[in-house]
Amino acid sequence: MRYKNLIWMLVLMLLASPVLVVAQTSQTIRIQSSIKDTKGTPIASAFILTDEEEVLGTTNENGEFDIQITPNSLLIFRAEGFESKVVRISGQTEEIILVPEWESRRVNTAFQSKDRSNLMGGVSFVNIPELLEKNYFTWTLDNMEGFAPGFHGNIWGNNEYLLLVDGVPRDPGSVMPIEIEQITFLKGVSAVALYGSRAAKGVIMVTTKRGSVGKQTINVRANTGVHAAREIPKYLGSAEYMTLFNEARVNDGLQPLFSQEEIFNHGSGSNPYRYPNLDFYSNDYLQKAYSRHDATMEIAGGNDRARYYTNLGMMSEGSLLNFGQAAQNRNERFNVRGNVDMNLTNFISGFADAAVIFYNGRGVNTDFWQGAATIRPNRFSPLVPISMIEGDDAVSQNFIQNSSHLIGGQYLLGGTQLEQTNPIADIYAGGSNVFTSRQYQFNTGVNADLRNIAEGLTFNYRFGLDYQTSYVLAFNNEYAVYQPQWNNYAGQDLITGLTRFRQDASTRTQNISGNRFQQTMSMSAQLNYNTVIDEKHEISAMLIASGFQTGVSQMYHRVSNANLGIHLGYNYQNRFLAEFNGAIIHSARLPEQNRRAFSPTGSLGWRLSNEGFLKNSSVVNNLLVSVSGGIVHTDLDIMDYYLYEQVFTQQGDGTVFYTWKDGLNNITTISRRGANPGMRFPKREEVNIGVEGSFFNNKVYFNGSAFISRMTGLLVQRSDIYPTYFATGFPASSFIPFENYNADQRTGFDFNLNVKEKVGAVNLNIGLVGTYYATKAIQRGENWLDEYQVREGRPIDGIWGLRNAGFFNSSAQIGLSPTQIFGEVAPGDIRYIDQNGDDRITPQDEVFLGRGGWFGAPLTMGLNVTAQWKNFTFFALGMWRSGAHAMRNSSYFWISGDAKYSEVVRDRWTPATAETAEYPRLTTLNGANNFRNSDFWLYSTNRFDLARVQVTYRIPADKFFGGAFIKGMDVYMNGANLLTLGPNRKILTTNIGSAPQTHFFNLGLAAQF
Question: pTM for this one?
């Protein structure tokens, strides 16, 4: 009976529940309030929306609104030009304050976010969603030099940086641009200090997108494009190569190797199988273009209790190779990301992020491009036609019948005793491989509001764990190649016999190689305090403990970074700003007593625009000047562990010394370095000044920095202060310790100038970004005989070499010139200048030739233009890089012996071209005299690139789709790497020994649901 009554009660409750729900939902309350900006000015025509983004009402000219809502409703307040605000309302509310969009935009910096107008210490940032709307790109740091001042491939002339994705050290390929909310470039010592030792040369912070309160949104993007080769290396054909090789032999006093008949037959093309003219870059092996496709879907939404962001993406890309198994080459990537934020209580929130990246790259078991740069065109035919084999040649017919690799049913693989393998045969028969990579990324954290302890006190904790593994699965096949014996019968070429080298063999089993794994663990915990006193004094403080460890397979020691940080900040009426950032760092790379150091940095700022003489200016809207400086200790330039210890080795390197008694040997002990128990951290010491301002009603924006930075205490084994016998070349040994001595200096500036203007019906936005840096070795331990060879005071990216005086034009001229020790010289060889007057050309005559720009071009500038007219948007980015030089020292230019000849040898020296020649005489010897660093081979790398162009059309969603399901749609066409201009454009755009550079043309669609 008791259970029967309980069942009836439950039935009655279920029947009554709809009535209760209706009754509950029918209860409403009236909300009357107003919406104003931060200056107290009413905002008219602002929208009040539900969390499903249904409009409940708008404000009148006084910023007032009057609506009916159910209790505890979540409302969104939105107005054009302002940041949206989300409030849960259960009763009457005070006026709603909206912050102007340009004012409220936050910039992520070390362990905090700041107003963009309060950045000091050298900070640049790029908001990626805004950029992607007009410039779709697929590599995280693609052309960032054109948007972020101070970044030129590195930061402020340094040689490396720390890249963080959501606070965890990761590689830029682990996240796609469409997943990113913001990229921040921390440049100065004050900006990087809190991240510790491994961040001393700059930090790039990548922050991924997160969900926000509102109706669920779905964004879909799809792209399809093609890559087309930009510049193909040009090598000589067989006939021209053979002719010039004969010339090279004659130059060396040898007889020609090839007869004129052979040269004619190779050049005529009458029988390319008997007289090959192998061109790796022909249509037989390469296609004109290859495709690239990608698609992404983003889903985001949430309420004040939980927000989510999800990204699913895929990419597929082919290659230029279009024959054999290489025709199946393709790279594929699939990724999933999920970021979730939760409000657990009124005081505690948390987040959990996860990302998975699957990457597969199908390839072949050879380096085709290296072969293309080295294999001579006349050596052999990669294919032997079976149709030209005599039918009564039983041995050859047996080879055909038993071959496992009959290409297209028509060809055997060709080769010789010297070329038993080659890239073309490898691609047809050598097997294939698949490179597989898997990345797993996890972040989690807790944020606690500790106002119950002290108002303004908060706590944050973050933990990250990454795991990455990769390996290669390959089928490695053996194959036979055949060298034909040719005869000619009544004018017809026939193969009368085949010589086989190697055997066809396949185990039909996969081989695993290249196994690699990497694991990163990252943690940070911070206690924060923020308060405002008397509405004038804003005080902030942070106490931070952070660190990370990255372990890599086959590496005993993990890469570690651990530090305690402290931040103190002060802001007086937004006029005077002060910051102190310091860190206690730890490194196991130093002696135990020197493993800790304190890195103090500080910044001061003065907002001139808030002073009386500028406060009401119609020209200056915001103007902040700042100065920053400090010292950051780092172990980045300590390349290994235990460098402070003296090291001895025994015979492990294969070094053995024999005693006087034959047949016996001694186990030898060799010193590798001396001990230095006082080794300490190298230091980055820096001062930089910054200016940031907006003018003419925020139509003009400028920020810039100037810096002088020194790296001191760099480790070096100083051979200049020890006797020469303290170090020997064979066996390689040294008693000289590493010590903190060398010092480098970097100086420079960067800037960003942005102008917004409306010209007629066109909204125009022009941005000019520039970075310049100079380097100098300010302290070196060196003993040079001649002042001009001293490295101290010269750029650290300096190129050194001989200066040339043209070519020797006669034996008499050689006899009257200084002796060149690098090899026997002859007319047509390069003549060098004797710098020290000792009548000998030696390495002592090498001088400074120019900057190499090893850390990035000394001057990097980017010009970006955006023009909007109605529903059309045009975007273009041009990049200028200048101030650096390089050597033409690849196999394309340094040609000797029996190497492959490129087109450059056409300008060789001969007695007939002595006055116009631009290339030394040809030789079959090693060319040691000619092929060494000198200004003869030096060239400027100055270049202008039309990096990106995109045209976007926004389809009116209301007109075409009714706005019910599809909220918006963009279609766009873009191109990348479209044009390069420069004095050495051809060299800069031609790859030797690797796949060609490409233009990229793309068609894309982006839709919002």
Answer: 0.89
